[in-house]
Amino acid sequence: MGTTDRSLGEESFASLSGPALRSFEEAFAGSVIAPSDSDYDEARGVWNGSIDRYPALIARCTGTSDVVEAVAFAREQGLPVSVRGGGHNVAGTAMGDASVVVDLSEMTGVRVDSEARTVRAAGGATLGDVDRETQIFGLAAPLGAVSQTGIAGLTLGGGYGHLSRQYGLALDALRSVDVVTADGEVRTASDDRNADLFWGLRGGGGSLGVVTSFEYDLHPVGPEVYAFFPWFRVEDADAVMARYREWIADPPHEAGVLAFAAHVPDVEEFPEDRWGEPAFAMLGSYRGDPGDGAEVFAPLLEAAPPIADLSGRTTYLDLQSMLDEDYPDGRRYYWSSIYLAELPDGLLERMLAANDAAPSALSTVDLWHLGGAVADVPREATAFWHREEPHLLAVEANWDDPADDDENRRWARELIADVRDLPAASGRYGNFPGTNEAPARAVYGDNYERLVEVKTRYDPENLFPGNGFIEPQPVSG
In 10 A of CB 1, how many CB atoms? Predict the structure, then answer.
């Protein structure tokens, strides 16, 4: 019996109908990239350098009609569809082995209606694309915190960021979406049109179709804000954490803080004798009068003098891109998470111990303070379930050497397993999913059954595997 060295992508491409492929290429206005093409390896690359998958075909779309053609072709050929927006999903769902990739990376248009305070952005747009246009008018949507992130994956999976406690998740700002479903139809989904589909898209993680445009409500933000970014010695972490607990008990509506354990970067903003040592830091922002920002965060600086304090007035655009250099394309990432009903005793010790044991100094252990506007939305209002938990512990394994893959992933998994035993711990955040190995109910809670029903209605053959959590009900014979 013969053997083959062909990849899954090459094997799937070879099984395609030649006439059907030629017909598809003739109808498709964008570029179609096959495994034999010289730009295939570059085109199949995503932000997370540890993802190495081989699609059958990459269809780089120029507009919605291209998306319709690509979805129809995949369905007719019996291949699953992967959807690439910004390509930043940490689990690499933008690229699936033996799939047809609907690549939206060239669909980045953004249009702001300043009077209605809305913005419509194409499915391949990034946070930076949207923020640049909305900030012309002093407006913003509650998106994430790294400007290179695609809006599509961020929004469909939830979307935490600087504005979350004030204005909710990215998906909470959605007014409507345009989506190509498995039957090739272009539908508008909103509270008034295809409401069940709209419900499922808000949290379903790309498992219900290809969203070609997002319409968000906007809020007055910027153009100038106050960024809070002090770094403390690890020896002072207990005292700083005590202040943090007091501050988050009643924070201003316009402010938020994320606390994290990390290693001091080797950059000139930090004392050279501290480079590489463990530290405890905070990142936050205040969107009221920037001149009041220092006073708002002053209680958090009373516990101990910082190693370095990078706080100060800045533009909202600079705040949104402040972390971009920490998450470059091609670095290797494994991020996981768990929600906390409270901050239990011993949590800080677990964070610091894990940080000290991290195989990579690029990794962090993050404590997100949630609540606020996120919790104001009922759990059943969208497919996103985890509304009421006030905290999220996220472990970010970030490294560069492929030889260190197993060690870094094991480190992150061991921390989550350790915290999972705490009574306050439960659930998972779908955008920090590891490799989507957690049970579906950990992400969707009691919304899971309804989400399966919506999936069964709109994608009965599972053309869109998405994050792999949601499968349609079997078709009865």
Answer: 2
Beta bridge partners of 336: 395
pTM greater than 0.70: yes
DSSP class of residue 263 equals E
Report the C-alpha gap between 259 and 237 in whole angstroms. 10
pLDDT, tens digit, 9 for 90 and up, residues 385-413: 999 999 999 999 999 999 999 999 999 99
Tokens for 184, please give them.
């090739």
The residue behind tokens 């419900």 is: 199
Name the residue with tokens 């938020």. 256
Q: Which of 28, 382, 320 is nearest to 177 (CA)?
A: 382
Amino acid, res. 150:
G
Say how many residues make up the chain. Answer: 477
Q: Where in 352-472 does DSSP place strands (E)?
A: 364-369, 391-399, 425-426
Strands (E), 42-105: 57-60, 81-84, 100-103
In tens, the pLDDT along 297-339 reads 999 999 999 999 999 999 999 999 999 999 999 999 999 999 9
Q: How many CA atoms lie within 13 A of 98 on its CB side?
A: 13
Which runs of E-coded beta strand occur in 264-305?
278-286
Which residues are CB-contacts of 307 (< 8 A; sequence separation ≥ 6)? Answer: 231, 232, 233, 264, 270, 271, 274, 279
3-state secondary structure of 66: helix
The CA distance from 166 to 177, in Å, is 23
Helix H or strand E encompassing 19: helix 18-27
Helix (H, G, I), strand (E, B) or coil at 367: strand
Q: For residue 474, what are the contacts with CB-CB under 8 A and spacing of at least 6?
A: none
List, for residues 194-249, the tens digit of each pLDDT value: 999 999 999 998 999 999 999 999 999 999 999 999 999 999 999 999 999 999 99
Contacting residues for 299 by C-beta, under 8 A, at least 6 apart: 243, 246, 247
- C-alpha to C-alpha distance for 427 and 64, rounded to whole angstroms: 35
Q: Read off the pLDDT of residues 111-139 as tens digits, 9 standing for 90 and up.
A: 999 999 999 999 999 999 999 999 999 99
The answer to whether 74 and 100 have CB atoms below 8 angstroms apart is yes
Residue 437 has pLDDT above 90, yes or no: no
Residue 443 is encoded by which pair of tokens?
């992400």
